[in-house]
Amino acid sequence: MHERGVIHRDIKPANLILSHNPRRIVLIDFGAVKEVGSAPGTRIATPGYGAPEQNQGSPCLQSDFYGIGTTLVYLLTRQSPTHFYNPRAQRLIGLEEAGLPQHWFP
Question: Which of 3, 33, 71, 105 is exposed most, by the fewest CB atoms within 10 A?
Answer without folding.
Answer: 3
